[in-house]
Write a structure and sequence with these properties.
Low-confidence stretches: 1-5
Oligomer: single chain
Bound molecules: nickel (II) ion
Shape: globular
CATH topology: Jelly Rolls
Distance between the termini: 25 Å
Helix content: under 10%
Strand content: 35-45%
CATH superfamily: Jelly Rolls
Number of helices: 2
Mean pLDDT: 92
Number of domains: 1
Number of strands: 15
CATH class: Mainly Beta
Radius of gyration: 16 Å
Structural class: mainly beta
Largest sheet: 6 strands, antiparallel
């Protein structure tokens, strides 16, 4: 995760500091969120026409995230919250863009605070996994796996708290270009995994 604004208090992190996170919203009085709107998700969903129709009707926020400006050095830990709103584009649930880490050999932990979702993961060799997430459950994202948070609730936000090595960096471009091998769609009112017809 990246993109944040912080108050001077948050800059105390080098000496140790306490940050508030509301478990119901994932929000912090100290840290502002970065926001992703539907219009910024062009090319990410299988049904681009359905996405553009939604953008024309209401270009709403699809997800938010925040983290502290922890120095991107070996040994430091980056952390923050991800907040995915409920909704669908066509039959595909709202999700975060998803990313590999620039340092591919990087694991990450996501702890679910609220909602119902999945962490969809895949590695460059083609192995993939979809781990269901409910409040109180943590998912371990192994090194080498891209990861995307997906909200399958009809009416509730998916809120997760994440921690990873601060020098890992983010590679969004690979997913933006290739897409994910698998998609999480609604079938008969339930989440189902299908092959991505547009995967390159
Ligand atoms: Ni990550």
């Amino acid at each position: 995760m990246a993109g944040f604004n912080v108050s001077e208090k948050a800059l105390d992190f080098i000496r140790g500091c306490t940050i508030d996170f509301d478990p119901k919203t994932g929000l912090s009085k100290t840290v502002q969120t970065g926001k992703r709107y539907l219009s910024q998700m062009s090319g990410m969903f299988a049904d681009e026409a359905a996405l553009q129709a939604k953008v024309a009707e209401n270009d709403e926020i699809i997800y938010e995230f925040h983290g502290l400006p922890v120095p991107e050095h070996e040994g430091d830990l980056a952390f923050g919250c991800s907040i995915v709103n409920p909704g669908k584009v066509g039959d595909e649930y709202y999700f975060t863009k998803g990313h590999f880490h620039t340092i591919l050999e990087t694991g990450e932990v996501y702890y679910c605070l609220k909602g119902h979702g999945y962490m969809l993961m895949e590695n460059p060799e083609g192995d993939w996994s979809a781990q269901e997430l409910r409040p109180g459950e943590a998912v371990y994202v192994p090194k080498r796996y891209a990861h995307r948070s997906i909200n399958v609730s009809a009416d509730e936000q998916l809120v997760t708290f994440f921690v990873f090595r601060a020098d890992a960096g983010h590679d969004y471009g690979t997913i933006e270009t290739k897409g994910y091998r698998k998609l999480l769609v609604e079938r008969d009112g339930k989440p189902a995994i299908i092959d991505n017809p547009n995967w390159k």
